[in-house]
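ok posting inputs for the aspartic acid job
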Amino acid sequence: MYRTHTCGALRLEDKGKKVVLAGWVQTIRKYGAITFVDLRDRYGITQLLFGEQVNAALEANPLGREFVLQVSGEVIERSNKNPQLATGDIEIDVQSLTLLNKAAVPPFTIQDDTDGGDDLRMKYRFLDLRRAAVRRNLELRYAVNRAARTYLHSEQFMDIETPFLIKSTPEGARDFVVPSRMNPGQFYALPQSPQTFKQLLMVSGYDRYYQIVKCFRDEDLRADRQPEFTQIDCEMAFVEQEDILLMFEGMIRYIFKEVKQIDYTAPIARLSWEEAMWTYGNDKPDIRFAMPLLNLKKPDTVFTNKADHRTLIDEAGFAIFDQAETVLALAVPGAADYSRKQTDELTEWVQRPQIGMKGLAYIKYLAADNCKSSIDKFYTPEQLLSIAKAAHAQPGDLILLLAGKEERTRKAMSELRLELGQRLGLRKPDEFKLCWVLDFPLFEYDEEGNRWVARHHPFTSPKPDQIETMIGNDPVIADAANYLRHPYARIKANAYDMVLNGNEIGGGSIRIYQRELQEKMFAALGMDKEEQQHKFGFLLGAFEYGAPPHGGIAFGFDRLCAILGGSESIRDFIAFPKNNAGRDVMLDAPATIDEKQFEELQIRLQLKK
Ligand code: ASP
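and the output
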């Protein structure tokens, strides 16, 4: 037996026991004739005491950090207890020691606040994984995995594996492809998700499916994406949107309870996509704090009972506002006393290339009837006060105004809201707020191709009352400048996203399950009959054999773990992640392959210049 206990197990009650431990040397401290060694394994750290005899034996071959030891000895009470350690009341009086393996000096220290930079730690990820901080992340990941499985199993979901070597499944990214040796010149694609398979499983009658599964997307790796990532992928038959929402609210609550010991009993807010865009400027709003946006150029028909704020700034002679496509306002709580330096800094912030605004106007709502503003040349004190009030500001607040092209201005204001929420401490890391975003548009306009693309994916159904609009209208966009007037621009999808603290953690939809509508959808996306048959003949065919109504959702497992673990980075929660260039720096992959492999594939490599 290599060990009787782990390095995290022994307590004062074990005093007097003869034990055998095995693990890695964390630290070595010599005090004259005796030596203390901290021995580490996955479970913790136990202090070892080497007396004269053991020490003498080590003289010729001293120990080093990360050496692998097996020791036997007696559990004794420590005179100098360490309350930080679970085993801190005891130590092992070592009688014999076996060196199981030596270790080279590790390139960084194996401790929570390591001296190793990112690249070095990734190159030696197997050492990085020994650090307790990283281990805790993987433990959390496993806890989320277990909780999801337990919940889904209790709800009769079946875990069914689906293949990795498949044909393209469009989810809006590029496919990774794999050449086939047995079919020279032909390629598999790696799944962007098991989307079509889970739908086929519904046709097959497995009405509750799930899989915690790898998905592969060859995207440019914007901040914190991975080319391979994991989803909790689910599908259900004989359901409506409401069934799905309730089922997965249940799952997320269960995960919170199991993993974080949080009773998330509060109702989960539901916002329409329009409401999210209107109020927060984006479709994954962080609702831990309010700070709603105010649109001064459009009547607010959706939420404030047709309040029209356009008159507040109309034709005041301030060309920037008068001519702008949109003007948005945001009240920043308690910031009316910002100095010139502070408002200048905010202006610079919105002028950074990532945000791209020309300038920032402000109104300081100082007291009940007292406003000071950077634009008071153009607006009367009454007008400024009305704007402040319309923006839901209280005396003491600072109202910020951005003007410009609609989309850019909305994005900028949304970023500014998040930034200020952060600075004001309103985005508390230990607070969790979930919401659903519903009623997404079915289509998105692709300017380059003057065509429609699926906002979610091509298998998402329109709202039932809008099927007519879809069937009855030609998808062709005759007037590109006015694409918003095309009936397709108004079609809403049966799609939903779950959002946690401003991150999309899950998304799904009720699917199309009739051949005719699916064909119409493909056609709307510009696929002719032949292409439809070539790419999705199997699915269209399956829909002819009794496809039940169905829908599903997939959760971004890595992201969910990162948020629950209080981290910004999904990499911290993946055992062997890739870097921002999509490389595995430990394996040094991707890499070239042997000439022989090319021959077997009957492929000749010729890179385009
Ligand atoms: N397959 C979709 C995705 O990966 C999720 C779904 O619609 O269930 O985003």
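notes: The longest strand covers residues 18-31. The two ends are 60 Å apart (CA to CA).
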